[in-house]
C-alpha cells in the first residue's frame, strides 16, 4: 500500500494559443522521489502544415518523448513547458498555502512538480502553451464571471498580502488571494500578474522588505535606458500606492488582441542545465539555427551585452533571455526584461561571452568577438557609442516622473553607471 501511495501518474492535454488547439498529451509519472514526464504530439498536429516544435527539446516526431531533470535544480518537464511554471516567488506562495492546509489535514499529500505547474492561472500562463483536463477545462481556470488576474486598482491589496508573506505573518485569506497570481518571469522577489488600465496583461513588481535601495525604480530606469539604447525592451513605468513604488511591466507574450504568442527561454532553446555554464556565443549559434531574422537578432544580442556591462546588470542568466515564435519553427529575440543595475556587485556576467573568454568584464573582449555577432569593428564601435550615450544620461532619466528617483537616491545607483568601462567607452569614441 505504501508503494501505491508514493506513486502517481497523471495525464493532461497540451494545447496552444487562445483557441486552445490540442497539440499533444503531457504525462507526469512519479515513483517515490523519482519523477519524469513525457509528451506525445497528436496526429492532427503532426499533419498540420503550420506545425512546429513548441520547445527545442520536443522535435515534431511521433511517439512519446521522455524528459528527466538533469539535476536537482532543473525541471522534470521539457523546456518550454517548464518556462510556464511558477518562479521562486510563485512557488513560495503555493508552498506556504499548502503547509497551512497540511496542518489542518495531515493526510494531505506532499506537493509535486506537477502541482506547481498546474497551479498557474491559465489566463496569465506565460507564452501560448496551455494545459487542459480530459473534461475540457483548462488548468487553472476560475469559474465563469470571476477573475483571478486582478486589475491595477487592486495593487495595494496584493502588496499588503505579499508583504505579510515576506514577514511570515500572512493569513489564510492572504494566501488564497495570492494563489495563481504569480508569474514565470522573474525570481524570488514579490510580484504578481495584473491587468493594466487598458486591459493588457502586465507584471507588478513590489519592493522587498530587505531592499536597501529602490529596486523597483531601478528596474524601470534600466528598461527605459535600454529603450534609449536601441534595445527592444518591455514597456515599464512606476505606479505608486501611497508611497510604495510598484514597477508595472507589460507582458510581451500577448498581441494587441490578447492573443498568446509561443515563448521559450534561452535556457530552453539551448536545452541547458542550470548547473552548467553557458555562453552568448551559444545563444548566437541558436539564433543562426532557429532565427527568423538572424542578423538583426545577433546584432541586437550584442547590443544587450554591451548595455548589461555598462549598467552593471550581472543577473543575465539564460532564463532572463527569451524568444518568441514567429512562424513554422522560426523564433525572434523577445523584448529585454529583468534588467537591473547592481551597484554593489562586480561587473562580471553570469552568462559567459564564450567558452574561451569566460564572463563578460570589459568592452575590449566584446569588441574582439563582435564578428561572431554579425558586426564589423566600426559597426560595433558605433553601437557602443549609442549605448554609452544613452546610459550616460541615467541621472536625468532617473529623476524623470516616469522613474521618480529622488536626488538623494542617485548615489545609491551611481557605481552601477559611472565606472571604468563607461570611461573606456568614451575613449573609444575619441
Explain what this protein looks like in three dimensions.
The chain is an alpha+beta fold and 430 residues long. Helix content is 35%, strand content 18%. The chain contains 16 helices and 15 strands. The strands form four sheets. It has a six-stranded antiparallel beta sheet with strand order 4-3-2-1-5-6. Strand 1 and strand 2 form a beta hairpin.
Helix/strand/pairing category: alpha+beta
Strand order of the largest sheet: 4-3-2-1-5-6
What is the 3D shape?
Answer: globular
Number of DSSP-assigned strands: 15
Radius of gyration: 22 Å
Range of strand content: 15-25%
Main beta sheet: strand number and arrangement?
A: 6 strands, antiparallel
Distance between the termini: 77 Å
Rounded average pLDDT = 92
Residue stretches low in confidence (pLDDT < 50, at least 5 long) are 1-5
Number of helices in the DSSP assignment: 16
Q: What's the helical proportion of residues?
A: 25-40%
Give a quick set of tags describing it.
six-stranded antiparallel β-sheet; 430 residues; alpha+beta; 16 helices; globular; four-stranded antiparallel β-sheet; single chain; disordered N terminus
Q: Topology, pairings included?
A:
Elements: H1 2-6, E1 7-16, E2 21-31, E3 34-41, H2 43-47, E4 65-67, H3 79-82, H4 88-104, H5 113-118, E5 129-132, E6 138-139, H6 155-167, H7 172-178, E7 191-195, E8 201-205, H8 215-228, E9 236-241, E10 244-250, E11 263-265, H9 266-270, H10 280-290, H11 294-311, E12 322-327, E13 330-333, E14 352-354, E15 358-359, H12 363-368, H13 377-392, H14 394-399, H15 410-417, H16 420-428
Antiparallel strand pairs: 1-2, 1-5, 2-3, 3-4, 5-6, 7-8, 8-10, 9-10, 11-12, 12-13, 14-15
Helix pairs in contact: 4-7, 6-7, 10-11, 11-13, 13-16
